[in-house]
FAR-17a/AIG1-like protein (Aaosphaeria arxii CBS 175.79), 223 residues
Amino acid sequence: MSTVLEVERAKRKHPLQRLDSPSKGFSGALHNDSFGGHFQYLTIIGLTICTLSFACGIIADITNSRTFFLLKNYLSLTAAPLELLISLLYWSLRLIDTSLVIPPDLPMLPLATDLTFHLFPAIFLSLDALLLSPPWPTSPVNPNAPLVTLAMSTVLAFAYWFWIEVCYERNGFYPYPIFALLGLWQRVGLFLGSAVTMWVVGGGLRAVYAYVNGFERVEGKRD
């Protein structure tokens, strides 16, 4: 049996070739030839929103545009809690078992790259939210902020779940190994828990903001 496996492996990989190719692991991710491409990964989705947020921020800085500043704040409202969630999930699962988030045939990222993908965006977005943003994208503070962020977190979590199931139907594999280990209701629990966690960290950011910057006093009624 082992001889047969070795023969099959040799067909996919030259003796001097470092990793299997073609394969559904690193080769598939690198070549981006599967349905959904890199956007199967929550990390890439988070980095994309983060990039858009900071792009709007730098345009606002250069042009002094209130429109781009407001757009940056709304994007950050999603990006900051999402990146915090990604960091919490990724590093927690890494501590439990690396194979839950990294396929067996995918090499470990260099530490600097790993931190760039899974930690620094959360730190930079948190600093932007705490030091360079109003307490809410509009002023005065929206009293329904907790409900808005809970709804946003839930929609985002289950939209991502629907998206990876569509990709799974086309590709035959999940982007993260943990999804393949869970049953239907376990995946429901995972995404529901992720939505609640994203909501909690968003609320935590608002609480820290109030502690650092104080509370906004609202006079009169909102229109």
